[in-house]
Design goal:
Blueprint lengths: L1 H6 L1 H27 L11 H25 L6 H35 L3 H27 L3 H22 L9 H45 L4 H15 L6 E8 L2 H8 L1 H18 L7 E4 L4 E7 L3 H17 L2 E3 L2 E3 L3 E7 L7 H17 L5 E3 L5
Parallel strand pairs: 6-7
Antiparallel strand pairs: 1-3, 1-6, 2-3, 4-5
Organism: Schleiferilactobacillus shenzhenensis LY-73
Protein name: GGDEF domain-containing protein
Pfam families: GGDEF
Length: 382
């Protein structure tokens, strides 16, 4: 097995790295059930998830030290150890990565004892850790793209192998120009693959949380969903079409909701939705036949059977004012939002249910086109 590793280092390294990442993904998915709330953006640097992943990579660091001792050479596994240290710093933060470095150093001492190679290993781990603390701080503050992070990591690996070659460290020697270049090229390939896989899996985990979050929208807002709206609206249209009794509709959209989610996280968006859902229920109580629906991520419709356009417009203005005055407290942030609104009444010219719905929707988009936080009433359709 060891001979196969030496003969085909890159292929074997890639498969081992993928195995390490995929096992980590299985652990993350299991831990998410206990630590991540629906819709919450996953943060690996805190909480139970941080403890579980730190423990996993600490055990992995011990295992790699054992394998390195069995192979009688650190150069073979150096890329693994550097990449694990770098990416645990990015994902787990200083404390988590620091514990992994400590586990690695203790394992080194246990398997090799106190010798020149152990001191060199401790010094290189500490140096890489300090460099990554600085880099991780810059990355988080400047919100670097994944490609930029991968390029920075490649630079760190390049500096490591250049210094290792010129210093000819006891635990790495002997290194030739060819073997040093080979180690660095392997590092670049593994890093590129690792960055891509981690980014993909991270997006999948956040998407999984978001899907769960979507499923809780209607529960938290206590509003009926789009499927129920479609059925109820079709029945109302058939009943009120070409009759003298009015049927009005309010279409509403939360302004800049995606930006709010991106800046404060899905948990904040969830609380805003729940607040507006309760507000809509309260404001429509004066109309016993009124029905409120969530028809999209941040879109709401209110059906008002027997309510004339003027009254529907007045209700829309009250809701708009109440929404603007609401303050939602989320983890120390006081958030407030506005809504764009369209109002219309069923008219004899509405030949199909789609005609009325689309006319109300056009009023909504006119409000958004005017700069948002507006109400547009379709007086021409009466």
């Amino acid at each position: 097995m060891i001979n196969a590793w030496i003969q085909q280092p890159l292929i074997t390294d890639i498969f081992v790295m993928l195995g390490v990442v995929l096992l980590n993904q299985l652990i993350v998915r299991a831990a998410m059930n206990y630590t991540v709330r629906a819709g919450q953006k996953i943060d690996y640097s805190v909480g139970f998830l941080n403890i579980v992943i730190t423990a996993y990579f600490a055990l992995l660091a011990v295992y790699f030290q054992y394998i390195g001792h069995a192979l009688n050479g650190d150069a073979t596994l150096a890329n693994f150890r550097i990449l694990i240290l770098i990416y645990t710093m990015i994902y787990l933060g200083e404390r988590g990565s620091g514990l992994i470095v400590l586990a690695d150093d203790l394992a080194r001492l246990a398997f090799y004892g106190l010798n020149q190679g152990t001191y060199e290993s401790w010094a290189s781990s500490a140096a890489v850790w300090v460099v990554m603390v600085i880099i991780a701080t810059v990355v988080k503050r400047l919100h670097f793209h994944t490609l930029s992070i991968a390029m920075i990591v490649n630079c760190v690996g390049g500096v490591f192998w250049v210094l290792t070659y010129f210093l000819q460290l006891d635990r790495m020697a002997p290194l030739t120009v060819q073997s040093t270049l080979s180690h660095f090229l392997n590092f670049v390939i593994m890093n590129s693959l690792l960055a891509y896989v981690l980014r993909t899996l991270d997006n999948e985990n956040n998407h999984l949380s978001a899907v769960t979050y979507e499923a809780t929208y209607d529960q938290l807002t206590r509003l009926r969903n789009y499927g129920m709206f479609d059925k109820h609206y079709s029945e109302l249209f058939k009943h009120y079409h070409l009759r003298n009794t009015p049927l009005s509709m309010i279409a509403m959209d939360i302004d800049w909701f995606k930006s709010l989610n991106d800046q404060y996280g899905h948990l904040a968006g969830n609380q805003v939705l729940a607040t507006i859902g309760r507000l809509l229920q309260e404001e429509t109580r004066v109309y016993p036949a009124a029905a409120c629906y969530r028809v999209g991520g941040e879109e709401f419709n209110i059906l008002l059977p027997g309510v004339a356009l003027a009254d529907a417009s007045g209700l829309a203005h009250r809701i708009q004012e109440k929404v603007a005055s609401q303050v939602v407290a989320v983890e120390g942030h006081a958030l407030s939002v506005t809504v764009s609104v369209g109002v219309a009444q069923l008219a004899p010219t509405d030949a199909t249910a789609s005609d009325f719905y689309e006319r109300t929707d056009r009023m909504l988009y006119q409000s958004k086109g005017k700069g948002r936080n507006q109400i547009t009433v379709d007086t021409g359709g009466r």
